[in-house]
Specification:
The complex is a heterotrimer of chains A (292), B (314) and C (570). With 292 residues, chain A is mainly α. Chain A has one domain: MetI-like fold (Orthogonal Bundle), CATH 1.10.3720. Chain A is built from eleven helices and no strands. Chain B has helices spanning 2-29, 34-39, 45-55, 61-73, 87-122, 127-141, 144-158, 174-208, 211-219, 223-261, 266-275, 279-307. The N and C termini of chain B lie close together (6 Å). The relative contact order of chain B is 0.14. In chain C, 35% of the residues lie in helices and 23% in strands. In chain C, the strands form four sheets. A six-stranded mixed β-sheet of chain C has the order 6-7-8-3-9-10, sandwiched between helices. In chain C, strands 16-17-18-13-19-20 form a six-stranded mixed β-sheet, with helices on both faces. In chain C, a hairpin with a 2-residue loop joins strand 19 and strand 20 (512-518). Chain C is globular, with a radius of gyration of 26 Å. Classes of the chains: A mainly alpha (292), B mainly alpha (314), C alpha/beta (570). Chains in contact: A-B, A-C, B-C. Chains A and B meet through helix 4, helix 5, helix 8, helix 9 and helix 10 of A and helix 1, helix 6, helix 7, helix 8 and helix 10 of B.
């Protein structure tokens, strides 16, 4: 579950990148994340072997020069599968985050602009309702009717992301609506929509960016879990979660089949979380002070 | 207090109603013809008609909805198509595994997270803090089912302290049953505890910046006395919310973990239901799980009244 | 021997030096006032005495309390000293108490932490102390929680917990700054009474010279981590030896220069009590408010009960003529902020009307709002941190719609506005965080001026500024008002500020205007009991210095009895 941090909008801008580079959290996290993104992008143009190519005589081999990560029970190259799996995980999580932002942020801004009204109540109630359905349950609902697929996984995770962003945006926006500079904009005759776009949104971007990294990492975990139980991307498309499911029965024979995809998940999520932590430290000067 | 309580109660009932409508719509209305859906394309017209009769599909949707809700309130969850037994029986059986698992992992989560979070906050930026922060950073990134597999590898396959899976049933003895749930509960608890510990730490750090902490120090309280007498209780309030939300993830995680350990719980039931297109089972189990989450959040809201006097007298 | 002796105290936090060399003395039973503006280090000095400094602090020098050197004590020893030998009261009463503990328990805490008595005995003792602090059990049961008390009442609880064990030294760090004037007066009386009864030495920290003049025997003026001057209060304020002291003193009693040809120049009561202002050229009044009513909906008590109503503004009428400056004073809860927001078309009114320059005000009709602008209180919250000054001060052009200037004309207006407020046109390209508090208020004024309004509402516009900066801004405002014939509606809780810049004053209480008239008249001859109470409660520097002379001589006898020194008993 995410921690809700309202980043102070008073942090001076300018040397943001330079400050970011001074944060070890951010740098390490960014490097790891970029590594996996690179792997995913690479998979579009090249993999050492076709990921679905079976080679039964060479099955269940360990790490070697020909197969950097070994082979699975069908002789397929694990490294190639990891590369394509990276693509699956990252794209599912990314699109799901996009869904969450695309719907959640406008809802949150709208609810905050109409604080206390019926619309606000309704949006908050809907949020609470979706929170009662963990992403897995939503996935179960969708897949029992429409069948499992990567798309349905995206929809399920995305639907759960919507109230996360809606609630966060609303909370952050509300804390700004009472500030004097918003009052000044209202005295200047500006309406709620204009103020939301011109003043509120730019000042909550910090908070949103931090949350994006968190939801991204949660999306990777969620995709892996769904794939593990067979509700995500279907074979032959590789997915780290599916690889783990297959590896389960073979765990004593070929532990690398279970270890490698798992470690990939751990590191990708870790990388994203470190980036998020680093960004949070940069954006919230209060935290910086207490670091001393 | 009564207005807060009534408000929360109304919220509870409303959420349940809307949730049930959503579930009903998705599982009964969207597939078009649930009977066709369940039986597949090759079903004979007679079997289809019989099933439609059995499911009462000839009545309009809203009456079926009311029947279903009324049935649930009486404990009647329908008859499973695949098992030919009342769903309520199946559910009760499986609950005997899933519920203790959820409670055990919740207990373990709090047992680990609270001391870790409090300690890390009390000794901010010390070695202890760094260790806790580091471990939780890792713990949050670990998928619980993968961690479960590793636990099996180490403790069952290598060390043989626990079985690799399965559940003997409570009638074989309480401790035997508990032993079967230990590894699963630990696997569930680790990532949740990591999250909770971080939230506890963060909440406590915020609380320690408050003015009343300084007042307590000015009275002559030591740092640790101030922490325990003033900070922890105030820091708990936002943490309670998180626990409520975490319960949902715990249930979902439990469903997945049951797969790793071959536990005969609600998770297995629901996945079999999906594979066999047994919508009756899926409908009821999903409703039950959602009900559990909404109920737990309601209890958390109630607990606020106990902890925070600002919500009491109105 | 003095109760407290601070010698050569230096303090740095991390790499930043905070206190350079502090020497202070306090005799038992006496009051030492420490005056300074923000950044002077006055709070840090008190925290050094208590050894409650933030992490990374390094303090050197000596602090002797009755012979015990405090900087050398271990943390455990300091825990024994805090609360028993030294009590402390802080600035923000609203957040100073644990919201989850009863007021009785929090006062008792000080007692049982130090004494060996049982919890029940401690509670009984706490009960007595709360009585002393003006919170009798009959009205304030000891199982009340802080959120059920007002700011002034919470401060009494904090004071009670600080003096529960009759400490030798009491430190009060701006204890009344966050309180209303009338509440402040009562809390000051309470502190005076308590230290007289117990013979406690009191260090009173404040930025308000008038408060300190009426309360302190000795005074120390701090600036940028140094004590620039110290000595007996009346001597320091009469002599004004150090230039900074003189600057502070002048700023506190500063009256901006106004154009003497204007009638109603402050300082000259003319005996004219009529509600309307003098005859002025250019007839149409700038603002006419007629029987304005503003209600707030309250949440229902029970589920089925109807929603309640709270009338924040109850049939208020007022007029402001062209070029006239009108003050609106009231304490918190008076409704003045609500009235201001209604006038600015930020909130709907449930009854009555508002007209600006003759045009009825409507929040949808942007044209009707062109003649009105506002300057807010908080220089740090009034601007979007992501925008440059030019964008910030041209925001009101939105009201002009299609008539808004572009290109060269717009540039010219921006430059003119910045120059008018004493800044340079080059500042237009900067970001707001590059400016100080006073400069930001100037930019806020520039923003208000740029569309050439007839009326500017100043909502506590100088309340958050240091005294010396405040004087400069008031000068600026007076000059602009005279030169550009702009009217002000000057809202404040601070009567001394209102007195210096307005022609007429309205006094507001509980949603109604209880008294109105020319400023000088109201201050010289308040008629309504509430106005009288407000003026009597407002600390007045001159008055304090005069009467301070008398009360201190009378008090010296008592102090001598408690302090043990020789001296004539009166």
């Amino acid at each position: 579950m995410s921690e809700i941090v309202i980043a102070s909008p008073d942090a001076p801008r300018g040397t943001l990148l330079r400050t970011a580079l001074r944060s070890p959290s951010f740098v390490i996290g960014a490097l790891i994340t970029l590594l996996f993104i690179a792997m995913a992008l690479l998979s579009f143009v090249w993999t050492p072997y076709p990921f679905a190519a079976q080679d039964i005589p060479h099955k269940l081999r360990g790490l070697s020069a020909e197969h950097w990560f070994g082979t699975d029970q069908y002789g397929r190259d694990v490294f190639s599968q990891i590369l394509v799996g990276a693509r699956t995980s990252i794209s599912v999580a990314l699109i799901a985050v996009g869904l969450g932002i695309g719907v959640g942020v406008p809802l949150g801004l709208w609810a905050a602009a109409r604080r206390g009204s019926l619309l606000d109540e309704i949006i908050m109630r809907l949020n609470d309702l979706v929170f009662a359905f963990p992403a897995l349950l939503i996935a179960i609902l969708i897949t029992s009717v429409f069948g499992p697929s990567a798309t349905n996984a995206i929809i399920a995770i995305g639907i759960f992301n919507i109230p996360v962003f809606a609630r966060l945006t609303r909370a952050a926006a509300l804390s700004l609506w009472t500030r004097d500079f918003i009052l000044a904009a209202r005295v200047a005759g500006k309406g709620a929509v204009r103020i939301s776009l011109e003043h509120i949104l730019p000042n909550i971007l910090n908070t949103l960016v931090v949350q994006i990294t968190i939801q991204f990492s949660l999306g990777i975990l969620a995709e892996a879990a769904l794939a593990y139980v067979g509700l995500g991307a279907q074979p032959p498309t590789p997915s780290w979660g599916k690889m783990l499911a297959d590896a389960q029965t073979l765990i004593s024979l070929a532990p690398h089949l279970a270890l490698i995809p798992g470690l990939c998940i751990v590191f990708t999520v870790l990388g994203l979380n470190l980036v998020g932590d680093g960004l949070r430290d940069i954006f919230d000067p209060r935290l910086q002070r207490s670091r001393r | 207090m009564s207005s807060y309580l009534l408000g929360r109660l109304a919220s509870l009932v409303l959420s349940l109603i809307v949730a049930s409508i959503v579930i009903f719509l998705v599982l009964e209305v969207v597939p078009g013809d649930p009977a066709q859906f369940m039986l597949g394309l090759n079903a004979s017209p007679d079997t289809l008609a019989a099933l439609r009769e059995q499911l009462g599909l000839n009545a309009p949707a809203w009456t079926r909805y009311i029947t279903w809700v009324l049935g649930m309130l009486h404990g009647d969850l329908g008859i499973s198509y695949t098992y030919r037994t009342p769903v309520s029986e199946l559910v009760l059986q499986r609950l005997g595994v899933s519920l203790p698992l959820a409670l055990l992992s919740l207990f373990l989560t709090m047992l680990i997270a609270f001391p870790a979070g409090i300690l890390a906050a009390a000794r901010r930026n010390s070695k202890t803090d760094l260790v806790v922060t580091g471990i939780t950073q890792l713990g949050v990134a670990v998928p619980n089912f993968w961690f479960a597999m590793l636990l099996v590898l180490v403790f069952s396959v290598s060390l043989r302290w626990f079985t690799a899976g399965g559940f003997p049933g409570w009638d074989q003895g309480f401790w035997l049953g508990l032993r079967a749930l230990t590894l699963p509960a630990i696997a569930l608890a680790l990532p949740q505890a990591s999250i909770l510990a971080r939230v506890m730490r963060s909440s406590l750090l915020d609380t320690l910046e408050e003015d009343y902490i300084r007042t307590a120090r000015a009275h002559g309280l030591s740092r640790s006395a101030t922490l325990w007498r003033h900070a922890v209780r105030n820091a708990l309030i936002p943490v309670l919310t998180i626990i409520g939300l975490q319960f949902a993830f715990l249930l979902a995680g439990g469903i997945i973990i049951e797969n790793v350990f071959f536990l005969p719980g609600l998770g297995r039931l629901i996945f079999q239901g999906i594979t066999q297109r047994d919508l009756i089972v899926v409908k009821s189990v999903v409703m039950l799980l959602v009900f559990a989450v909404i109920l737990v959040n309601f209890l958390v809201d109630l607990s606020y009244i106990l902890v925070d006097p600002r919500l009491r007298r109105r | 021997m003095s109760l407290l002796a601070i010698q050569n105290l230096r303090l740095s936090i991390g790499d930043t030096p905070i206190l350079h060399r502090i020497d202070l003395d306090l005799e038992a039973g006496k009051v030492l006032g420490i005056i300074g503006e923000s950044g002077s280090g006055k709070s840090m000095t008190s925290l050094s005495i208590m050894r409650l400094l933030p992490a990374g602090s390094a303090a050197s020098g000596a602090i002797h309390l009755n012979g015990t050197e405090l900087l050398g004590q271990t943390e455990k020893q300091m825990c024994g000293i805090r609360g028993r030998e030294i009590g402390m009261v802080f600035q923000e009463p609203m957040t100073a108490l644990d919201p989850l503990k009863t007021i009785g328990a929090q006062v008792a805490e000080t007692i049982w932490v130090h004494d060996q008595m049982s919890r029940r005995e401690a509670m009984a003792e706490a009960d007595r102390v709360l009585d002393r602090a003006g919170l009798p059990r009959s009205l304030f049961p000891r199982d009340r929680y802080p959120h059920e008390l007002s700011g002034g009442q919470r401060q009494r609880v904090v004071i009670a917990s600080a003096i529960a064990l009759k400490p030798k030294l009491l430190i009060a760090d701006e204890p009344t700054t966050a309180l209303d004037v009338t509440t402040q007066a009562r809390i000051l009386d309470l502190l005076r009474r308590l230290v007289d009864e117990d013979g406690t030495g009191l260090i009173f920290i404040t930025h308000d010279l008038a408060v300190v003049a009426g309360l302190a025997d000795d005074v120390a003026v701090m600036r940028h981590g140094d004590v620039v001057e110290a000595g007996p209060t009346r001597d320091v304020f009469r002599a004004l030896a150090h230039p900074y002291t003189r600057q502070l003193f002048d700023a506190s009693s500063h009256v901006p220069r106004r154009d003497p040809s204007r009638s109603g120049w402050p300082g000259e009561p003319s005996g004219d009590r009529s509600d309307t202002a003098q005859e002025r050229p250019g007839g149409e009044p700038v603002l006419v408010v007629d029987s304005l009513i503003r209600d707030y909906r309250l949440p229902p008590r029970h589920f089925l009960a109807p929603a309640g109503k709270f009338r924040a503004v109850d049939g208020v009428s007022l007029r402001i003529e062209r070029g006239e400056n009108v003050g609106l004073v009231g304490e918190s809860g008076s409704g003045k902020s609500t009235l201001a927001r209604a006038i600015m078309a930020l909130e709907p009114a449930q009854g009555g009307s508002i007209a600006i320059d003759g045009t009825p005000l409507s929040d949808r009709d942007l044209v009707s709002r062109r003649k009105l602008q506002v300057v807010f209180q908080d220089p740090y919250g009034s601007f979007d941190p992501r925008q440059r000054v030019e964008t910030l001060i041209t925001e009101p052009f939105h009201l002009l719609g299609a008539d808004a200037p572009h290109g060269a004309e717009r540039r010219a207006r921006v430059d003119a506005a910045l120059t008018d407020v004493g800044l340079s046109p080059a500042d237009a390209g900067k970001y707001i965080h590059e400016f100080s508090g006073g400069q930001r208020q100037r930019i806020a004024i520039a923003r208000a001026l740029i569309i050439e309004p007839s009326l500017i509402v100043l909502d506590e516009a100088v309340s958050a500024l240091d005294v010396s900066i405040r004087a400069q801004i008031l000068d600026l405002l007076a000059e602009l008002s005279d030169r550009l014939a702009i009217s002000y509606l000057f809202i404040s809780h601070d009567l001394s500020v209102v007195r210096s810049i307005t022609d007429r004053v309205l006094v507001m209480q509980n949603g109604k205007i209880v008294e109105t008239g020319p400023t000088a008249e109201i201050f010289a001859n308040p008629q309504h009991p509430y106005t009288q109470e407000l003026i009597a409660a407002t600390p007045n520097l001159e008055r304090a210095l005069q009467s301070g002379l008398l009360s201190r001589t009378a008090g010296e006898g008592d102090h001598a009895k408690h302090g043990g020194g020789g001296g004539p008993t009166l």
